[in-house]
Amino acid sequence: MATFSCPISFPFRCSSNGNHNHRDHRVNIKINGSTSTRPFKLDSLNEIVGVVKASNSLVTILENGHISEERIRQRIPTQKQLVDPYRQGLIIERGVGYRQTVVVRSYEVGPDKTATLESLFNLFQETALNHVWMSGLLSNGFGATHGMMRNNLIWVVSRMHVQVHHYPIWGEVVEIDTWVGASGKNGMRRDWLIRSQATGIIYAQATSTWVMMNEQTRRLSKMPEDVRDEISPWFIEKQAIKEDLPDKIVKLDDKAKYINSDLKPKRSDLDMNHHVNNVKYVRWMLETIPDKFLESHQLSSIILEYRRECGSSDRVQSLCQPDEDGIFANGVEQSLFKNMVLSSGIMEGNGNLSSLEMKTYGCTHLLQIKGESQNEEIVRGRTRWKKKLSRMPYST
To answer: How many CB atoms lie under 10 A from the CB of residue 245?
Structure first.
């Protein structure tokens, strides 16, 4: 199929004949208040028309003689989309859920060639944003809807719980499902499932709670009715992790066994809401755990309770307290089978082990801002760890 580049002009006229003799029709237009004739590369004339037709706000801007280059480049739809060929995404769950197929890339894995926990968190964030993109509700903010932008509101996560059974490997194709539901009167729950496309095995599941904050005052806000009307049709009653009454995480003090006080946010750690992205918190928490332990163990679950945001000028301290004394010593070098509990039905006819539940180790975490007179909590956390297995899971 022939492709060509042409400048956008309104009204525009671009032509391509059978001899692929392309002509550029350049008409000066105003982009963000300045005149520009720079061409935008688009795959087809129909795509150009689609960009214009897809955005009511774009048409409104055009009537005033101005066009937002950002809108053209992002291709943000104003109507619900069922398939996104660019992101390998599609709408599922009777038209309200979202599934995206991704390949685990080289920069998303660690030394053992498995995806890092940070990479999983980044995939959670990316698929959540793409879900809003597909809904047609995405405005100019970081996952904010049109109603939220009118009310100067942004999303902030208040709690997150992730369970990891197996980590995807480099080059593996996985499917990530995500959906949303109600959480009280003013909150929203978002859940995820990560599965192997090849085997269908569930690798990880996660649930999170989100609330709204005023972008200017930085205070939490109730959910306006116009915003509720926007997002409530997308709510479904389905939970990736069922939590009845989750236990509160205790607050650590300076008596914690492991403390790292030399943490300083970088400019690259900030997201579009101008605070440190929550994925960075995970890295800071894990930095207090000795490398020897991390080499032989993998995180199986993490719970995060967010207390306040962190800015670029803050000094951060990370604290960690293991549940058991000495569990980080020598990488917990006990016998593998000593740390396994045989579940019911473990023995099959030929005497093979069919199901093993490994002993896990727990830790409590705290990230806090170091102040001159007092410290301020950023996030409390709980992690559980298990011995790494050398084999990968396969369906039978």
So the answer is: 5
Taking the C-alpha atoms of residue 116 and residue 121, their distance in angstroms, rounded to an integer, is 9
Query: Of 131, 146, 161, 275, which one is the catalytic site residue?
Result: 275
Considering 130, 166, 273, 297, which one is annotated as catalytic?
273
Q: Cβ(288)–Cβ(321) under 8 Å?
A: no
How far is Cα 279 from Cα 265, in angstroms, rounded to an integer? 12
C-alpha neighbours within 13 Å on the C-beta side of residue 113: 6
Is 130 considered catalytic here? no
275 noted as active-site residue = yes
* Cis, bond preceding 393 (omega within 30 deg of 0): no
Q: What is the DSSP string of 147-173?
A: HHHHTTEEEEEEEEEEEESS--BTT-E
- Label residue 193 left, alpha or beta by phi (over 0 means left) and psi (-120 to 50 means alpha): beta
- Please, which pLDDT band fits residue 66 given cuts at 50, 70 and 90? low
Backbone angles phi, psi at 66, to 5 degrees: -125, 150
Q: Which residue among the candidates 6, 310, 320, 363 is catalytic per the annotation?
A: 310
Token pair of 100 as six digits: 């995206």
Please write the tens of the pLDDT for every residue from 368-379: 999 877 899 999
Tens of pLDDT, residues 286-338: 999 999 999 999 999 999 999 998 988 899 999 999 998 666 765 444 433 34
